[in-house]
Amino acid sequence: MEYVNLHNGVAMPKLGFGVYQIKDLQECERVVSSAIQVGYRLFDTAQRYHNEEAVGNAIFKSGIPREEFFITTKVWIDASGEDKAYTSVLESMKKLKTDYLDLVLIHQPFGDYYGTYRALEKLYEEGKVRAIGVSNFYPDRLVDLISFHKIVPMVNQMETHPFFQQEELKPYLKKYQIQHESWGPFAEGKNNIFENELLKKIALKYQKSVAQVILRFFLEQNIVVIPKTIHTERMKENFDVFDFSLSKEDMLNIKSLDEKKGLFYSLQDPSLLDRFLN
Ligand SMILES: NC(=O)c1ccc[n+]([C@@H]2O[C@H](COP(=O)([O-])OP(=O)(O)OC[C@H]3O[C@@H](n4cnc5c(N)ncnc54)[C@H](OP(=O)(O)O)[C@@H]3O)[C@@H](O)[C@H]2O)c1
C-alpha cells in the first residue's frame, strides 16, 4: 500500500474502501470482511450510514491488529454542537469496537459545526482521534473554519471524480496542507462513466479497466480514493492499481473531462438541508 502523510505526520493509506449505501448490517459485515481479505485497511464510514457496527464487527473478527487499520467516521448534522458531537464520537467508537479513531470528519457544513469542530479538537488533544478534518467544505466554509480554530483540518473529503475534479478547491488545500480525499471517485456510475469513450480508450491502452484508470488518475495526484463496491471481484480490481502509471498526456486527456460542477447536490441549494434532515 502507498501512503500520504497528513500535516500532523499521520500516515494515511492512499486507497481505502467506502461503505455508503450498504445499509443491511449483515451485508455490510460480509462486504467489509471480503475487503479486508482483499487487502483494504482504510474503511470510510459515517454516523449517517448506520453501519458502523457492521464495520466494527468485520474488523474485530478479522483478528488483524487494530493498528493495521485506518478507520474513518463522520459526525452527522443531528449531532452537531460541542457536547453532542463529542458524545456521538464516543458512541461511534463503541459501535466500531475501538478505543481510538484514525480520522473523524464533520460530514456537512450545517448546524453548529463550529461546536462540532471544537469537540474534534478536544478528542484529538486527548489522543482519542489521530486526525480530524471536514467533508464537503468548499473554500468559503473551509477558510472560515480555519480562521477561527487552533487546528487546521488534516483532510477534506470532497465529491471528486473525472467530471468534477475540484480545481478551484485545490489551491486552498495546498496552501493549508490539507489532504484531498475523493468521495464518489466513480461518480456512483453517473454520466455512464464506465462507458466513457475516452476512459475506455485509455483503459485499453494500459490493459486496465475504466475503474482502474480513474483510481490511478487520482492516485497520481496524491488524492486519497475510497471506492465502494459490494462485489469481491471489483474489490480486487479496484485494489490492483499500483502496477502502472498514466502518461502526462493521458492525465491531461482525463483532465479535459472536468465539467467543474457536482453531479449530486449543491450546498447553495436551500432545500438541501431539508433533504438532509428528513
Ligand atoms: N463525505 C460525503 O459526503 C460522501 C458522499 C458520498 C460518498 N462518500 C464516501 O465515498 C465512498 C465512495 O463513493 P460512493 O460509494 O458514493 O460511489 P463510488 O465509489 O463512486 O461508486 C460506487 C458505484 O460504482 C460501482 N463500482 C465499484 N467498483 C466498480 C468497478 N470496478 N466496475 C464497475 N462498477 C464499479 C458500485 O457498484 P457495486 O457496489 O454494485 O459493485 C457502485 O454502484 C462512499 O462509499 C463513502 O464512504 C462520502
Describe the structure.
The chain has 278 residues and is an alpha/beta fold. It has eleven helices and ten strands. The protein has an eight-stranded parallel beta sheet. The chain is globular and about 55 Å long. The mean pLDDT is 97.
Summarize the structure.
This protein is an alpha/beta fold and 278 residues long. The chain is built from eleven helices and ten strands. The longest helix has 14 residues, at 25-38.
Fraction of residues in helices? 25-40%
Under CATH, the homologous superfamily reads: NADP-dependent oxidoreductase domain
Poorly predicted sequence stretches spanning 5 or more consecutive residues? none
Number of strands: 10
CATH class: Alpha Beta
Q: How much is the average pLDDT? A: 97
Kindly report the CATH topology: TIM Barrel
Distance between the termini: 39 Å
CATH architecture: Alpha-Beta Barrel
Q: Estimate what percentage of residues fall within beta strands.
A: 5-15%
Structural class: alpha/beta
Cross-sheet strand order for the largest sheet: 3-4-5-6-7-8-9-10
Any idea what the shape is? Answer: globular
Core attributes:
single chain; 278 residues; alpha/beta; eight-stranded parallel sheet; two-stranded antiparallel sheet; binds NADP nicotinamide-adenine-dinucleotide phosphate
